[in-house]
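User: These chains co-purify. Model them together.
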Amino acid sequence: MRKGSGLKNLRALRITPAKQEATEDETLLQRALAGQTLALERLLSPHQPALYALCRNMLGHAEDAEDAVQETYLRAIRALPQFRREANVHSWLFRIAINVCLNGKRTRGKTVPLELAPDRAVAQPSPETATLTQIEIDQALAVLSLRQRTVFLLREQQGWSVPEIAEALHCTHRRINNELYQTRRALAAWILAHRERGEQK
Amino acid sequence: MNCHRAARFASYGRDHRLSDRKRTDLETHLAQCPACRQREADYNRLVNALNTQHLSQPTANLLENALRQARETAPEVSLTPGWFPTTLRVRITAVSLILVAATILLLATRPQGARGQTILRKMETAIGRATTMHVVSWRFDMTEEEARHQTWHDGKTPVRGEDWITHDAISGGDAQLGPYLWNAAGYLHYDPTERKVKYIKANPEMNLKATIERSFHPVAAMKSAVLPGTYLTLHKAADTVWRGRKVHKLEISSGPNKPRDGEEIPTQQQEPGKTPPPGSMPRTRQTFWVDSETDLPVHSEQEKEIQGRWVLLLKRDYDYNRPAPVSLFDPEAVRKAAEAFAARRR
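Assistant: Joint model of the two components:
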């Protein structure tokens, strides 16, 4: 089982040759479908940090993110027999998580704005992020719509390509390209305003 | 390049959608514009912070919770030894297949007559309420000789199209008189000798219902064609869609085999028990489509069995309660049509 942060997991996944990873997943999948709970856990649990990071950044709230990840797992367990082999487990889980976050947020409506969310899950900022704290990241993401946040996180944090995002969100490449541009423009405007506020202080 | 364009190009560049030339232009602009350089540096800083963020991980075991929830909401799915046992799935599939097959078998062997008879009764009532009936028919069994004498035949093919409007009058034609109008009491026709439109008395009992019965009724046509010792059988009453309408599809055939209960259509000519000489008569069948909303027939096809194959003889489309064109009852229009017809024949 892989251990460590979401980023480390992602890096580990990228380093592992895709073919080998697919073979491992396939083996675990077969054993999980045969009823081995341990195989099921080994198949799904390595993706939790990355899933949690995505949900946390999308929803802006730790408890909502935990609920979303749990719901993602529940849906994945129920849908596992129908899992299509052409997608890998990682992107399949992410697609479920995106749907959970988008639909869940739509159902709940706007509960707690990101900038007002009480839980600031901050822990030991590393030296390279010292100038931009978790609070600032949350504030920057709060200027985006949920949809823009999804596109931005998938592209810039998860490293998905535009066609992959378009497929996951059931829309055209052109729309994703445009949304990415609009998102970056909104973030640039926030960063500029944020810096100016800092300079005034 | 202005800053707005530079921002757009920078965004494209991040998604690998920038040509070498545009990339050079962007780099040139960034080298000269401190504001754009700052913007891109700030954005890189945000992305970098996002990719190195340290989020406290959830304390609860989310996967375990999900597994527990899956067990609670689907108690038949056991996690040990198999949380989705293959054998159970196979059994469920097998039972489902058996049930589907049994249903199909039951439906296929069940006599459809009772339901078909109900549809026929409703159809009779609906036809009785119709004010007009517009019939377009195609015959496929005419000889060249027959076709040559038909009013609207093109003189080349044995297939003829007719367009009948049945109101209190029918437009029609014959070889001698040319076009004519036929109504309850008689018909109008143009006499080319006297160059006049004449009114000829016809069957005074003729009316719409009788006209339909005599000439166009899909069942009546079959009834009149039944030979002694044969039966008229209602075979199918399936629900389907025809030209976007929901319809009942019925099939009637004539032949020596005794129909099953509820599938027989009584005819006057029928003499049960008397077996006809083998091969003395061709088998015929009529399929017709009855609109499930109006209960009126909308299409019919008549076929005959020739050397073991069913051959289409006649097909008709029906429309109802459509106003007949005024010109149909105008003697002058009849005269013109007759003259045109005579000119074509010459």
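Chain B has a mean pLDDT of 70.
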